[in-house]
Amino acid sequence: MKPGFLLPLLFGVLVLLLPLVALKAASPASLTESSSLPVSSSLPDVPESGASGYGADSPFFQSQPESPAQTSSASSEQTAYTPSQIPESSFSYDGAASFRILNQTTGQVETVDAFTYTIGSVCAEMPPTFEPEAWKAQGVASHTYALRQQLEQARNPDPNLQGADFAADPQNWKGYVTKELFLERYGEEKGSLYWGWMETAVKEVADKVLLYQSQPIVAAYHSMSAGRTEDASNVWEGSAPYLVPVESEGDKLAPKYETTQIISPQELSDAFPEIPCTGEPSGWFSGFERSDSGYLLTAYLCGAQLTGKELRTRLDLRSTHMEISFVNGSFLFVCQGYGHGVGLSQYGADYMARQGSTWQEILSHYYQDAVIANIAQ
């Protein structure tokens, strides 16, 4: 081959390859190919879910306890589902074109259309590095959460909500975020690209909700479990057959899955001033009781019984799935997971999506016995 012929040939190959490179750069999957669930240092960690409703005290479980939770038969292998195996129904309701949301920063009640709320919730709860199927699953959960809140407030209005369906804090990315605030964080160019990807995904599930016995479920969700989700009855007053423990092994690959916190005896005493502690600190804790998923239910501090939730709240820990030891004169708290551990695990959803699961399969895994319903227009 003549040397002069090589240059045009190489140029032609380059021209053919450039569109493929550009297409790869524009794909959301290009941000999320690693199986180790990377989150860029420029992106925020997934906040603890349910900031506007499903934290330590769920109003639904306190006011409307449901039937006793069933024992989970989930094995360590995630159950495989196909869309045709998942029951679907048609559910008609009034007033869901929009939601009235109490802005916790401004104190004003704002009317937000259902789709705007749902995409804003997904963008606040999940980073742009997650898989589209995980975004869709979160979108259905968020929409169901808002619908359940709206129906609950219609039945039993909370005067603290000032006529709103629920409260949120978009300025601090709690519950949902506006597009304007999203672009402020990520920048106009990248933010518009990220928002567009997530909006496209959410549009595919905008008419879907989760039901149990023809009612919207309490669609609890959290950042990551400790490898197995928790039973709702161990977190709130009441239970639900669709919020039972399931395996979520992908959570163990998430960033900050395990965290440690060192707390001195004085700091512990300051956190619990009502409990007088004397004697050797290494003997202050005793009587640990754990759930089947390993979350701390109760423990004794200097003879006084505490719940795992109290310890987590007072000491600002990431999870009640904790081990407590006394090392070198201080207490060492080792926590696994982030959040209450009930319902959908967001990092678990992303892991399932990376393994090829659809949004339907993700929701059916985390919300046992719930059905995916079409909203009747």
Description:
With 377 residues, the chain is α+β, with helices and mostly antiparallel strands. The chain has 10 helices and 15 strands. The strands form 5 sheets. It has a 4-stranded mixed sheet with strand order 1-15-5-6. It has a 3-stranded mixed sheet with strand order 3-2-4. A 3-stranded antiparallel sheet has the order 8-13-12. Strand 5 and strand 6 form a beta hairpin. The protein is globular. The protein starts with a helix and ends with a strand.
Q: Largest beta sheet, briefly?
A: 4 strands, mixed
| Straight-line distance between termini | 67 Å
Bulk shape: globular
Number of strands: 15
The helix content, as a percent range, equals 25-40%
Count up the domains. 2
Topology readout:
Elements: H1 3-25, H2 59-63, E1 88-91, E2 98-103, E3 109-113, H3 114-125, H4 132-155, E4 166-168, H5 179-186, H6 188-203, E5 208-212, E6 215-216, E7 221-222, E8 258-263, H7 265-271, E9 285-290, E10 296-301, E11 304-307, H8 308-315, E12 322-327, E13 330-336, E14 344-345, H9 346-354, H10 359-366, E15 371-375
Parallel strand pairs: 1-15, 2-4, 7-14
Antiparallel strand pairs: 2-3, 5-6, 5-15, 8-13, 9-10, 10-11, 12-13
